[in-house]
Amino acid sequence: IVGTATDSYFDSYLLQQANGANPEESDWQPIEGVSATPVNSSTLRQFATTTVADGIYSLRLRVTDKVGQITTVRRTITIDNTPPKVTLQSPTQNQYVNSQVAIIGTTDDKNFKGYRVELGAGDKPESWEVLTQSATIRQSEGLYNWDTSGLEGQYTLKLVVEDFTNGQVVVNRQVMVDNTPPQAQITVPETDAIVSGNLKIVGTATDSYFDSYLLQQADGANPEEGDWQPIEGVSITPVNNDTLRQFATTTAADGIYSLRLRVTDKVGQITT
Ligand SMILES: [Ca+2]
Ligand SMILES: [Ca+2]
């Protein structure tokens, strides 16, 4: 606490603090005792604000001269030793995302200044782009609606929250952006092929962020959705122009059949 306590015939000064903006006379407490040395635009006291609860306080400086005249000056201050509350709920760490992504979280403080959301490429970005900034407190709600169009690969989101005393609280979050649907292709058999015996089904089921593929068959040329039956189960290994399945055609009656390949990526995009 910096100030001036002087007089040509200086006697002493006293610095006091009290709860609230309008304390009663009896509420004032000295910060240390009475000082007998004048101070001119210099440190009057050190006040350890962590020894009191956060809130509004009054400060009062009383300077007395030898004849007993007293000059008083007052200040109101807000003490805030509590850092902002920050939670980034969504997206989660290493989550796969695409198209529109709702960034959801909590940014709160009694003396809230604001938050901003930034974006950088890779897991340790060298530069950041500010997506949004706001002075509005958020409680488990949307911070920003992020449009990932045109982006692909790993990115880092940074949520920065500030109050008026504690600097910045930062949360970093790595996400994988995948706006490319999987590749799904059946090359053998060709459409309307006539086949027999043990049929090798050849094709491609790939994606940069591949999850799985499923090969299905059904009776007839235009099966209902409920008619599709898997040929074996789900495969979690991508196939690039190679055997997807072996289909023992002798286990089915002669006739027309449909085949369907469904490839899913990590973000849940499906190509059929
Ligand atoms: Ca605070
Ligand atoms: Ca993909």
TrEMBL record:
<dbReference type="Pfam" id="PF13750">
    <property type="entry name" value="Big_3_3"/>
</dbReference>
<dbReference type="InterPro" id="IPR022038">
    <property type="entry name" value="Ig-like_bact"/>
</dbReference>
<feature type="domain" description="Ig-like">
    <location>
        <begin position="144"/>
        <end position="197"/>
    </location>
</feature>
<dbReference type="InterPro" id="IPR013783">
    <property type="entry name" value="Ig-like_fold"/>
</dbReference>
<protein>
    <recommendedName>
        <fullName>Ig-like domain-containing protein</fullName>
    </recommendedName>
</protein>
